[in-house]
Each structure stands twice: as C-alpha cells, then as structure tokens.
Amino acid sequence: MTTLSLLQLYPEQLGVSGDGGNVVALAERARRAGLDVELVEHRPGDSLPVGADLVVIGSGPLSTLRSIHSDALRFREALSDWADSGVPVVAIGGGMELLSQGISGEGADLEGLGFFDASAHRGAKRRANYFRVETAYSGPSLTLFGFEDHATRFELAAGASAFGTVITGGGNGDGAEGVSRGSSFGTQLKGPVLPLNPQLTDRVLASAVSRIGGVYDAGPAHATLDEYARQSRLVIEKNLERAFKAM
Amino acid sequence: MKYVLPILLGRLVRIIARARGGGSAYPGYLVLKLLPSFLTDVTKQFDRGVLFVLGSNGKSTTTHMLSDVLRAHGLRVFTNPTGANLPQGIASALLSEVSIFGKLQADVGVLEVDEAFAVELSGHLHPSTVLMLNVQVDQLYRFYETSRVADMMTDTAATAGTHVVTNRDDEYLGPFTSSTLDVTRFGASTELVAGAPHGLQNASAFGGKTEGSAPLHAEAEVRALSAQGATIALSRATGGGSSSLEIRLPAKGLHYAVDAAAAIQTARVALGSEFDESKAVAAFAAMKPAYGRGERLKIGTDEAEFVMFKNAASLQLNLDALTDAPEQVLLAIDEGTPDISWIYDVDFSSLDHVDVVSGEKAWQIALRLEHAGIPIGTVEPRIEKAIELMKALPAPASKTKNFIVNYEQMMIARKMLGYPDLEKRA
Ligand SMILES: [Zn+2]
Asked: Which CA distances in Å does B31 have to B12, B230, B319?
C-alpha cells in the first residue's frame, strides 16, 4: 500500500482558525481512498524533516508569525527543492505571506522564505466575509467557497501566477487571489478550504500521490463527505453578500 | 430635572421596542445621545462603586456568581444582563431600573464589559475593581490578534481605582502588575489543569512568555472538583492564614470552578474585612445556573440541558466537562457565529454520535463530524424542526436531552420549549 507522508508546519502557532481541518481533510480522504497516511508535525526547534509528500502550513496573526520566523527560515531551501520535485505545498493566509518574499506595512517587517514570488502588504482594508474564487489549479476551472479574514494586499511579481480569480470577496486586492507555483499554492481561503472544497483536495492528493507512484481516486467512501461539503457551499453561496463587522 | 425628559423618552422607546419583541439596546443609545453623562451620573450613586468583569469566556457566568456572593453579604447589586456589555446595552439596563429623576437604589454595580469598549467605559464608570478572566482565541474576525484583546484588558485593568484580580494561569494576564494597585490572582492547581483533557484553553502568548520568572501566587485556587462542586483554597501572598471552601457549582466543568474562584477572590478584595466565607458558600449553594450555562428546562417528560458556546475554547471546555457521551444530543450553530473554521480545532471525541445537527451552519457541522467519524442522525438546518426531532426521540435513560448551541440558537430553542425571555433583557 502506498504511504503518503503529510507534513504540517507549526500546528499550534499556525493553527488558530481551523488550519488543522485542511490536514484532516487530506488525511481522511486519502485513507478513504485506501492509502496509508503518515502525519508529521514540525514545531519550533524540531530538526528539519528529511522529506514529505505533501506540506500544509496554516494561518496565524503577525505576532505568531514573528515567533516562528527564525525557525521557518530554515525551510528556505528544503521547501523549494521539494516543490520543484512535485511535492504540493498548501499555504493559507499568514502561512502564504510567510512563504512570500516578505511582509511589510503596519509595523510588519518580516523577511519571507521567497518560496512564492510575491509580497504581502499589511494595512489594506480589513476583510471578514464569505469568499468565492475560481481556480484552474491542476485542471479545468473549479469554483471554491470559503471565508476570508485578513487585511493584506498581496502583490505578485511579474511572471508569478495567481491561484485563482476573485468572484466575490477581496483576495489579493486586484481581482486575483493567492499565488501558485507548480502543484503548490497559497490562498486566503479559510473555512477551512480543503474540507469545504473536496474537488480541490482531490487534485492536491492526486498530484502528491502520483509523484510517489500511487493512484488516488475518490469513490463511494467519499460520498457523504462530498454531499455535506456541497450543502455547506450552497449555504455559503446564499450568504455571500453578508459582511461581518470587524473592530 | 435634566434626567426626566431623556429617561422618559428612553423608557418610551424601550416599551415600544419590547412590544415589537426586541430586546433592544436602542433606548440606551438614545439616552446616551441626549444625556452623555448618564452612565457616570447614575453609577456614582453606588456607595461601593463599580466592578468590571472582563474576559474572552465566562463573563456572564462570573458576573452572575459575583453578584450573588455580594447579595449574600446584604448588598443591593445592579448588574447588566448577559451580553448587554456595550455602552448602549449597559445604559439600557440602567434605564430599566432608574427613577425618572435618575436615582437608582443599589450599593454596587457588577458589570460584564466587552473588551473593545472596556477602556472607554472605564472613563465613564470608574471601576474600583477590574477582574480579568482569560484571553482565549475568540472572534478573530473582529480582533485579528489575540494579543490585541489581552492589551485591551490589561489597559483597562490599569485604570482600576483600587483592585485588580487576574488569572494566574493565563499567559497574557497572569503577569499583570502595578505599583499603585492591589493585584491578586485566582487559578487552578497544576494537577487539575494537567488532568483536564484539553487544559483551560487559554491562548498561548507565543514568544511573549517571560521565562524563568518566579511562579505567581493565586490567592484563590481551585484544588479539587467533585460531582457537585469544587474545593477552593483561599490564602494571601504573604502572611495571614489560609482556608478552604467547599462550594456547590451551578454547572459542571473545571472552567466553572475557575470562574467561581475568580468571583470569590473579587468579592474578597471588594468587601475587605466584611467578606464572610460562610456567606460565599451559602450563595453558591443557592445559585441557579446562568442563562444557558448548564441550565435544565423541561422538554416533555424529560429535561433539556443547555450548554452554550461561542468559540472553540468554550465548546471544548463544555465537551470536556461531559462525564459520559450523551445519549441524546443536538448541536446547532447559526450565522450569529460567522466563521466556524475553528470547529476543526475542537476535539469531539467525547461524543459517540450526534442525533441532530442544526442551524444555518448545520451542514458545516455535519462535514466536520463526518471527518471525525462521528455518526449523525439527522441534518436539519431549521432549529424549530430540529427541536421537534429531539422531542420525538424516545425517552433517554438519563432523562436528559443535551442541547449544545450558540447564543442565537439557544434563544430560539428556549422560546420553543416555553421559556421565552426569562432573562431580564434591557
Ligand atoms: Zn442519540
């Protein structure tokens, strides 16, 4: 049986808004497809993992990004090498910003890992709303639903590609959303994004599993998950225009 | 005489708002517009001043406990109803009790205060004592940074007249000190916290910890939990004797015991030498649960036990307080809680099934539970129908049907079970 090694970076620090849900969705769907899943968590001070088949880094506020910053910089080469060999890296919110060239504005002055060729500018208008995005990540166009909660303008360098297009919400601030690099991507989609959008999850898993010579197929064991996710997205779609008051 | 017109107007608006079925803060808003000094003028009549209760979680419960302990000492207490913790809500609550000349017969005000408005309210109400309960990851869509919430609380504490009571076990709040204020602490013993499945759910001050500093003393410390209550040890940081109180708790769970320790310690500093341990114990013995916190209401021949939560921390603490997997359980969240990403941070393993999931977020709850392998009976987004389904289930051996709900769903459910608006809503 194929074993998929799934690495989550900083589960406590970058895990305050359900980021573990993305890991749970990947692991659960992989298991239901008959794969073995090995979960690895990296915490500040741990030795660098030798490798991984799939990497997830979640979101956190600036104070916690600062607290793991020096530890995270140690991944600069490794993450890049893994991604070049086809390992998908999924980065959400603050995690995506940390993997960019850097975070500036509002007193933030944080060098990034340069994994994504983009830069994050804090101090944009705060957004807390439902979020609808279209992406062509690893296949034909997909509509994704989730929640958006940030105050970042995310600027892609010339030549970098966005993860998707904003249909409803703020995203990067210019109509584009997130950033992609091969089978890796960063996004502001929360909710969390992977349980809510199983087709995206399946594309991530298909990339990761095919790289290690396995086959990933969603089947009847996934039907209930898919139905609950579909119904959840319908409710979000109905409430898309709602905005939530920030202070 | 300057009070008569604004108060009459506010009252009138209140009557209209209530007749239309709203528990509205608008009357308070109106009075504050007409009479900006209203809050200050009314509360300065309280001989014993005003006490603030701040925290991410447990404000209502603790305000309720502290009020009852002070009443047991013979004080007349003015307090604000659950959730009416913004300036206009507090003004509305005062409006319902003042005479048209602005007089209010109370000795002390015990007020739960929203973190974001606490410093501003302190400017009007001049609290003698500020109690800080905890900083938990809460409403990130509103506050962005947990550390910002901590700063709001400690900035407010610094404006206290005399006393600050803080949580020894909270990384943000425990270290609070002041050269001019009397600072004391409450907490739970290391053994109890270590034995709780997911601890006390206080937020971590990542990177902000002061390593190597001397351990902090808790003048009121929870030492043991029993089926009915808790043991709370009382002492002073230096000198003086110590004693141990056995109190009954109005609801189950370590977090309620910690709230009780906080309330008792606050009553101790506010009452000084008048504090009487036996009166505090008697107050807890007679205490009813706060609205929706372990409250039991009749449902057919059984009882519905309500547990209300508003975030991952309070949901986790309430799940951890379950002694056995409930026989019959409803879990409901609606749009009152906009982003529920955090349900993936919650460990639901104390449930072996959920009979009905409900609220507009029902499908998202179902999705989360399915990922955790917890079987679901029915997904029914309409709470009214969901309650009918719960009613229709055969009588459970425990005689208890558990309702785990957010605030808005609780309000609807209570009403449906024939308990409308029991709470004094200003
Ligand atoms: Zn059942």
From this structure: 11, 43, 41
φ and ψ of A19, to 5 deg: -60, -30
Residue pLDDT, tens place only, A127-136: 889 999 999 9
Cβ-nearest to B363 among A63, A64, A231 = A231
Q: What is the pTM of this model?
A: 0.86
Contact A19, B137 (CB under 8 A): no
Which residues of chain B neighbour A232 with C-beta distances below 8 Å? Answer: 363-364, 366-367
Tokens at B343, concatenated:
């349900």
Residue A46, domain CATH: 3.40.50.880
Residue B240 Rama label (left phi>0; alpha psi -120 to 50; beta)? left
Residue A225: its chain B contacts at CB < 8 A?
367, 370-371
DSSP, collapsed to helix, strand or coil, labels residue B182 as: strand
CB of B202 within 8 A of CB of B254? Answer: no
Give tens-digit pLDDT for A9-19: 999 999 877 89
* ipTM, two decimals: 0.96
CB within 8 Å: B364 and A235: yes
**Residue B388 alpha carbon to ligand 1 centre in Å:** 14
pLDDT band per the 50, 70, 90 thresholds, residue A37? very high
Q: What is the domain range of residue A163?
A: 3-243
Q: Look at residue B256 and give its three-state secondary structure.
A: helix
Mean pLDDT estimate for chain B:
88
Choose from A194-203, B199-208, B340-349 the range with maximum mean pLDDT. Answer: A194-203
* Contact (CB, 8 A) for A99 and A89: yes
* Nearest-by-CA chain A residue for B208: A67
Q: Does A169 touch chain B (CB under 8 A)?
A: no
Q: Both ends of chain B: CA-CA distance in Å?
A: 24
Could you write out the three-class secondary structure of B262-331? HHHHHHHHHHHHHCCHHHHHHHHHCCCCCCCEEEEEEECCEEEEEEECCCHHHHHHHHHCCCCCCCCEEE
Q: Are B259 and B57 in contact (CB under 8 A)?
A: no
- Chain A residues with CB inside 8 Å of B361's CB? 235
With CA atoms as reference, the chain B residue closest to A23 would be B344
State in Å: Cα B355 to ligand 1 middle.
5
Distance B390 CA to ligand 1 centre (A): 9
Task: Give the closest residue to B185 by CA, choosing from B168, B169, B202, B206.
Answer: B168
Q: Is the sign of the CA dihedral A228, A231, A235, A237 positive or negative?
A: positive
Instruction: Output the pLDDT for position A137.
Output: 97
Cα distances (angstroms) measured from residue B350 to each of B51, B316, B324 = 37, 10, 7
B423, pLDDT greater than 70: no
Name the residue of chain B whose CA is nearest to A234's CA.
Answer: B363
* Total domains, chain A: 1
Separation of alpha carbons B23 and B256, rounded Å? 27
- The residue whose two tokens read 């166009």 is A141
Cβ-count burial B235-273 (b if 16+ within 10 Å, e if not) = beeeeeeeeebebbbbbbbbbbbbbbbbbbbbbbbbbee
The alpha carbon of B325 and the centre of ligand 1 are apart by a number of angstroms equal to 9
Question: How many whole angstroms separate alpha carbon B298 and alpha carbon A22?
Answer: 40
Q: Is B34 on the interface with A (CB under 8 A)?
A: no
Tokens of A93: 């919110």
Higher pLDDT, B201 or B394: B394
